[in-house]
Write a structure and sequence with these properties.
The complex is a heterodimer of chains A (about 600) and B (about 350). Chain A is about 60% helix and about 0% strand. Chain A is mostly helical and about 600 residues long. Classes of the chains: A mainly alpha (about 600), B alpha+beta (about 350).
């Protein structure tokens, strides 16, 4: 059944008037709107995701530059900030309300809109059909909706920046009661409603996308593409989608209860509250503020794997291609992805060790949390072994893949500190946490994303990105990331709390003024270099060196059997058939063997 | 002005980079793609090694630089246990960090592209994979074992003779309540809270046990070498009692009291000498985002000797006494005490009587 579908094209994929045999790039009835705006072509949708993601990344990055300015120079006034931000930077100094709005939006934007929407949206859409040999997604229409819900969520989130009382400012975790009570914080007024609405739309987008990814991977693989012949990218995306589909609904339910508490007078999260600003005691009794944290982190923790798994997949694939070696321990890599996926659901309360959680329950979560280090360690050692005795080409994508592993090690090891409840008592909510998650899921997920963009850009646009700019981008970002986040561990060990905009009033934490200035300066430089990447990206779309061969990296996977600029439907003729796994590099003295090549008579077994 | 200047410089720098980048692409075409690739590869391979060496030196240097600024001596027994755990974890993760980072960058450098090298077809090896499954598992067992050993000691029940202090967080400050001579905290109900009537915790004056409760704000007094149990509440949003010198931390959740206990080892005066800082104070920092004043939500702990504490405690006037300063007691009500029924506002009653 599935073979027939894949060979003759899926009936749901495209309108019946498209004949793949005759039309390579163009097919009729493509208007500007259907081709570039409401496109149902997975490749166009992936481009829409990455460009929207880039806009968000610039905005989110800019927010961090603004609050780093405050952290580095808490006593200095910057008149241009008042010109730019008006009352939020009265006298050239960022106001506390706005500082908290900035950190909240920075977190929300980067975690959800860039590293979930932008990363999964881009590479799941682009790679699934091309690498498993399908003409498009299982449902191109839902796929299109997934992007447009993402877009709507983005519009609502951006609009919250312009509300008079300001955007949400209770942190990206938006714990109630703070996020439930407008009287407790300005940002919990209209801004918070918009934040919840936007996140609800985002969840819808994520579910539509995720269900589509899963059904496509399970049902639409080409002839011969058994699950264990799939590239690791696809495995990683599959597990990511499963995580999202199972955990985002829980988040949504948490948000809906929050909405009820805000507007319908319910008491899910509220109890025993007296508001100082209005001098009033609220009628709500019996709710539990901690309930929200359970609901939030039941997504919130899988969310970090939703972010990092696709990056792991991209890195594994790029590493095999550029070492000219098979990825070491393919089955172990799949197994460890699976183990991480399962464990991701069982560790959420490690974010809540100091909420008054039952210590015994806490100890169970310590055990489960530290178990994740085992599959992670397997992955790291397998990547390192993949490098061993390779013949490594340092393409920009490969550099970012190596950088990813380095950052993943550094950030992963500090997770062993935080996952241990004893140490979490001291380190919880300090800069140690900031350093940990920025390295392990922030920067390293970005590295995975850059790795993917540089590697598949030729497939996306038929041109290369500029190498020199890419090399500068890589080295400045890698060095910069370590310079920014490494010293933060020391601040965290000293107990310096996060989400403070000025430490000068504290005898315990004011010893790091100079270091904070240094970090801020590096952050600005690194941000500027990201703008150069964005420039390189857009410049290369139009002016980059043209790709002249079908398979420029010498890869084995199916996307490189498609034309240089594939049209809707991907392959002009029949969909290629697969005869082997994706990692036959350097086998039997041959540089690489495409997945489409039948197994030879005298070929050695692996 | 300087901002414009800065932006101009940045733009200029960017333009130059862009021109060089473009030129190098042309040069690559002229030299031949293969040659350009090989020279790029050599440069990046070399940089891998430079990054590794410079990075390791940087890590060492950073350690030396900040050694004195982080983790002064822990001022509680629990803190010392946490520091022990930190050191164990440092050693184990440090070793892993060094081995993996060195292998990663060294392999990248060593196995960079060469025309003569053939990559080695090495798809899997069960023995190797078993080794690096078992070794991390053993290391983690050690860490979990030590961690939970300390965890249960720290979160276990407080000793019976511990001093009890009730801590309440509010936007943006701390309120502390001590038992009076009767040795119990009187009842309270949040609907009774009124800053105007000087009843910041909503104590129920109908309950005689409240009459000797001492309520102070911003400064908490503790006795050196005597365990203290904090009963932690919040009046509005979630706060967190962060005690960096004691290495302790616990959320203050409205509606759900939490507890933590520890034993301070040094008085504030001793710490001033130990840290060579005449302005040293034990600070309470709020470690859970609580609104616009979060970064300034500070409390101070004075750790004193038992005698000093008794003296301080004796000098404090109970909250009840402060409210009813003229010495008149509020009207006695016959109704039985129920925490859920708000007591009549006593000050209003007094006003009515006069």
């Amino acid at each position: 059944m599935s073979n027939e579908l894949t060979v003759h094209g899926h009936p749901g994929v495209a309108a019946p008037d498209i004949h793949y045999e005759d039309h390579e790039v163009h097919h009729h009835k493509e208007t500007f709107i259907t081709k570039y705006v409401f496109s149902q072509d997975h490749k166009m949708i992936s481009k829409q995701f990455i460009i929207t993601g880039m806009v968000w990344a610039i905005l989110g990055g800019l927010m961090s530059v603004l609050f780093r300015l405050q952290l580095g120079y808490p006593d200095t006034a910057f008149p241009f900030l008042e010109d730019l931000l008006g009352k939020w930077a009265k006298g050239g100094k960022i106001q506390p309300e706005f500082y908290y709005a900035l950190v909240t939006m920075h977190g929300t934007v980067l975690v959800f809109f860039v590293l979930t929407g932008g990363l999964s949206g881009t590479f799941a859409n682009f790679l699934i059909p091309l690498q498993i040999g399908a003409r498009d997604m299982a449902s191109p229409f839902l796929n299109m909706l997934s992007y447009w819900f993402f877009w709507l969520a983005s519009v609502v989130m951006v609009s919250s920046l312009f509300v008079e009382t300001g955007p949400a400012s209770g942190g990206w975790t938006s714990y109630p009661p703070l996020s439930a009570l407008g009287d407790a914080s300005q940002g919990s007024k209209a801004g918070m409603d918009l934040w919840i609405i936007s996140m609800a739309l985002f969840v819808v987008s994520s579910l539509l996308g995720g269900l589509n990814y899963i059904s496509t991977i399970l049902n639409m693989r080409t002839k011969g593409m058994s699950m264990t012949r799939m590239p690791l990218t696809i495995w990683a995306i599959l597990f990511t989608a499963i995580l999202g589909v199972l955990s985002f609904p829980v988040l949504l339910s948490g948000f809906i209860l929050l909405l009820f508490d805000r507007h319908a007078g319910t008491s899910f999260y509220l109890s025993d509250i007296f508001i100082a600003s209005t001098q009033k005691a609220l009628p709500n009794e019996g709710g539990s503020a901690i309930l929200f944290q359970h609901l939030f982190w039941f997504l919130g923790h899988p969310e970090v794997y939703i972010i990092i798994l696709p990056a792991m997949g991209l890195v594994s694939e790029v590493m095999a291609v550029n070492t000219r070696k098979p990825i070491f321990g393919y089955m172990a890599m799949v197994g460890s992805l699976f183990a991480i996926t399962i464990l991701a659901f069982l560790v959420w309360a490690h974010h809540m060790f100091v909420t008054g959680l039952n210590p015994f329950l806490g100890s169970v979560f310590v055990l489960l949390t530290l178990l994740i280090a085992i599959p992670s360690a397997i992955k790291v050692f397998n990547w390192i072994t993949t490098l061993w005795k390779g013949n490594i080409r340092f393409t920009p994508a490969m550099l970012f893949a190596i950088g990813f592993v380095s950052l993943f090690i550094s950030g992963g090891l500090t997770g062993i500190f935080l996952g241990n409840s004893t140490l979490d008592i001291h380190l919880h909510d300090t800069y140690f946490v900031i350093a940990h998650f920025h390295i392990v899921m922030g920067v390293s997920a970005f590295f995975g994303m850059f790795c993917g963009v540089y590697h598949w850009f030729p497939k996306m646009y038929g041109r290369y990105m500029n190498n020199t700019m890419a090399y500068i981008h890589f080295w400045v970002t890698l060095v910069g990331a370590y310079l920014i986040f490494w010293p933060m561990h020391y601040e965290g060990l000293a107990g310096m709390p996060r989400r403070y905009l000025d430490y000068s009033g504290w005898a315990s934490f004011n010893q790091f003024g100079e270091l904070n200035r240094f970090i801020s300066t590096v952050a600005m430089v690194v941000f500027a270099v990201q703008l150069m990447f964005v420039f390189n990206f857009f410049y290369s779309i139009f002016k980059g060196r043209r790709v002249t061969s079908q398979n420029p990296w010498g890869s084995t996977t199916l996307e490189w059997t498609a034309p240089i600029r594939p049209g809707h439907g991907n392959w002009p003729g029949e969909i290629p058939e697969v005869h082997r796994w994706a990692y036959d590099y350097g086998k039997d003295g041959r540089d690489f063997i495409m997945q489409t090549e039948p197994i030879g008579d005298h070929e050695s077994k692996h | 002005m300087s901002t414009t200047f800065l932006i101009l410089i940045l733009l200029l720098g960017f333009l130059i980079t862009f021109q060089i980048a473009k030129a190098s692409e042309y040069v690559a075409v002229l030299k031949g793609e293969k040659k350009a690739f090989e020279s790029n590869n050599r440069i990046n391979g070399f940089l891998m090694m430079v990054f590794l060496v410079a990075g390791l030196i940087g890590v060492y240097w950073c350690n030396e630089l900040f050694k004195g600024k982080v983790l002064g001596e822990a001022a509680s027994q629990h803190g010392q246990q946490i520091d022990n755990m930190l050191h164990i974890t440092f050693i184990i993760t440090g070793i892993v960090f060094l081995i993996t980072q060195i292998l990663l960058f060294w392999f990248a450098y060593k196995y960079q592209y060469s025309e003569t090298r053939k990559s080695y077809y090495f798809p899997h090896d069960n023995r190797l994979e078993m080794i690096w499954t078992v070794i991390p598992a053993i290391a983690l067992t050690v860490l979990v074992g030590f961690g939970l050993f300390y965890w249960f000691r720290i979160t276990g029940d407080a000793p019976k003779d511990a001093l009890k202090v009730e801590v309440t967080g509010k936007q943006f400050g701390w309120i502390f309540r001590y038992e009076g001579k009767d040795g119990v905290f009187g009842k309270k109900y949040y609907q009774n809270i009124s800053d105007a009537k000087n009843n910041s915790l909503g104590l129920l004056w109908d309950d005689p046990a409240t009459h000797d409760d001492i309520v102070v704000s911003n400064e908490m007094y503790l006795i050196v070498n005597k365990p203290v149990k904090l009963i932690i509440n919040s009046r509005d949003v979630i706060h967190d009692v962060g005690l960096v010198h004691f290495r302790m931390k616990m959320d203050a959740v409205p509606g759900t009291p939490t507890t933590m206990w520890f034993t301070p080892l040094f008085t504030t005066e001793e710490m001033k000498k130990k840290t060579n800082n005449p302005n040293f104070e034990y600070e309470i920092s709020c470690d859970q985002m609580c609104g616009k004043g979060h970064y300034g939500m500070k409390g101070v702990i004075k750790v004193v000797s038992e005698d000093e504490f008794i003296l301080w405690h004796a000098k404090q006037k109970s909250n009840y006494a402060q409210v009813f300063e003229n010495g008149e007691a509020p009207v006695k009500k016959d109704s039985t005490l129920k925490a859920v029924i708000p007591a009549p506002a006593p000050a209003a009653l007094i006003a009515a009587r006069n």
